[in-house]
Specification:
Length: 321
């Protein structure tokens, strides 16, 4: 069989509808869970979408702590729910008491990124469990997209706490972002409800083919994560030397406050071939930019560019002020 207009044969695995059941069992075993507790998803985005579709109706409320990943609010609003934003505390600390104060009978979804994007802040597992227990009428999603760089998880808790869900992705530490594959984990009964709104063919054949190899190569994953953790400390130390304000991170990025020159800062790094995220419009992130941490080589290139850009834009004194 040939792909029209290309003249190249299509591999057999691309010609049939993918079957994820065997891989789901393998992923569940890797996570220490039962297959009934796991759903393979098209990245964490689909996990958020499925929970929103399952648990939210018009007039319901979804609670999020801002600043955070934008898709929580987007998918909740798509279901007609009201999004209740709770602002993070000083230095982006998790506002547990403020969030608990916002609980109501209409609260049907609570989404928490741990570590958080874009701040890199983390919240203790016992706080997340407290929230889930305080809101039994709501689905509580803990988004652990950056788990490998933090090392703390609540993925063992859904068996005891029925309304707790955990999402993971293979986009970050595993380097499979373009293939879009992740997981949603939860209690058996709740996951059966989520599966009712999920497509049976939501994950593509390429991702299903590659993931077993990625899971098997834990030596690579461990080596890459160790590099990121070392380089995260290296970058934060350099930012301190440059007088650039940053928030200590538990993820593979660091949020910095540049101030009024944030757009010029982003462009100057782009001119040097380095792409960073301008987070100036996020709540509480005025003048902030997110820097991703990578390999030793990439981090060295970033640090050299930062030194040039801080000097070029005269940021050292401005940022310290």
């Amino acid at each position: 069989m040939y792909w029209r207009g290309c003249g190249r044969s299509i591999p057999n695995c691309w010609r049939v509808i993918p079957n994820a059941s065997r891989l789901k069992k393998r992923v569940a075993a890797f996570l220490g869970l039962d297959p009934a507790q796991v759903l393979l998803t098209n990245g964490v985005d689909e996990a958020i979408h499925l929970l929103s579709s399952t648990y939210l109706d018009p007039g319901d409320e979804a609670l999020i702590v801002t600043p955070t990943f934008a898709m929580y609010a987007i998918f909740a609003q798509a279901e007609g729910a009201r999004v209740v934003e709770v602002r993070a505390g000083e230095n982006f600390t998790f506002p547990a008491n403020d969030l608990l104060a916002q609980l109501s009978p209409r609260t049907r979804l609570i989404a928490v990124a741990n570590p958080n994007n874009p701040t890199g802040a983390a919240v203790a597992g016992d706080v997340l469990i407290q929230i889930a227990q305080a809101a039994p009428q709501a689905a509580v999603l803990v988004d652990e997209a950056y788990f490998e760089f933090h090392g703390e998880t609540v993925i063992d808790q859904p068996r005891q706490i029925e309304n707790l869900f955990v999402a993971r992705t293979f986009s970050k530490a595993y380097g499979l972002a373009g293939l879009r594959i992740g997981i949603l984990a939860g209690g058996d009964r709740q996951m059966a409800m989520v599966r009712r709104v999920a497509s049976p063919y939501n994950v593509n054949a390429a991702a299903l083919t590659v993931l077993p190899e990625a899971l098997q190569d834990q030596e690579y994953v461990g080596r890459y994560v160790a590099q990121v953790l070392s380089n995260r400390e290296r970058l934060q130390q350099e930012l301190g030397n440059l007088g650039v304000h940053y928030w200590p991170s538990h993820a593979n990025f660091v949020l910095v406050r540049i101030g009024s020159a944030h757009a010029e800062f982003v462009q100057a790094l782009r001119d040097r071939g380095i792409l960073v995220r301008d987070r100036h419009t996020d709540p509480g992130c005025e003048g902030c930019v997110r820097l991703t941490v990578g390999t030793y080589e990439h981090t060295g290139i970033l640090i050299a560019a930062l030194r040039d850009v801080v000097e070029q834009l005269g940021l050292r004194n401005e940022v310290r002020a």
